Structures are given as C-alpha cells and as structure tokens.
Amino acid sequence: MTLLATYPSSHAALRAERRLKDAGLPIELIPVPRQIHSSCGFCLLVHLQEPDATLLDSGLEGLWRALDPEPGQPRRRYERHPSHP
Questions:
Q1: pTM value surpassing 0.70
Q2: Which pLDDT tens digit goes with each residue over 1-50?
Q3: Could you tell me the strand order of the sheet in which 2-6 lies?
Q4: 1, 3, 22, 14: which is closest to 59 by C-alpha?
Q5: Rounded distance, CA 42 to CA 50, Å?
Q6: Which residues on neighbouring strands pair with residue 78, listed in sequence order?
Q7: Burial 63-84 (b: 16+ CB within 10 A, else e)
C-alpha cells in the first residue's frame, strides 16, 4: 500500500523525509496533489502496508491512502487513513 503524508510546512516535510530515510522507510518526496489541500507544497509517499510509529511521530498534518486510478482516469485518488482523521 502507498500512504501519502502531508506536513504543515516545507521545512517539516524535509525534516520528516530525512528522519524517515534514516529509519530505512521507503519514501519519496513529491509535490502535494491538487486533490489534497495542505499548507505545504511537499508531501511524502510512503510505501508501507500500515503506518508505523516512526511515520506517525514525524509531525504529520494528514495521512492518506493513495488509491490506484479508476479505469479511464489518469490520476490516483486519495482517501483519509483511519489512523489519522
């Protein structure tokens, strides 16, 4: 599963990226998708089945599930993850 983590600022996202990479989590720093409103321009795609403590303690603003696009749609869809409403 791919999770998308949003942060309150670019600085917070960059700090979380460094911390999560140091912890060995498979992540990618990307621009925040248009479908998600955030006060920061960056977010992290995290490739985990379920969020772990390191991710949940990284200063998250929001946590989303990245869903595969529906047939005929070019973009992924996102839904809030139940562990971080």
A1: yes
A2: 899 999 999 999 999 999 999 999 999 999 999 888 766 689 999 998 88
A3: 27-31, 42-47, 2-6, 62-67, 77-80
A4: 14
A5: 21
A6: 66
A7: bbebeeeeeeeeebebeebeeb
How far is it, in rounded angstroms, from Cα 77 to Cα 22?
Answer: 28
Element (H, E) at 45: strand 42-47
Q: How many CB atoms are located within 10 Å of the residue 35 CB?
A: 10
pLDDT in tens, 43-72: 999 998 888 899 999 999 999 998 988 888
- Token pair 């989303």 in the structure block, residue: 64
Element of type H or E holding 14? helix 10-22
Burial of 17 (0-12, 13-18, 19+ CB in 10 A): buried
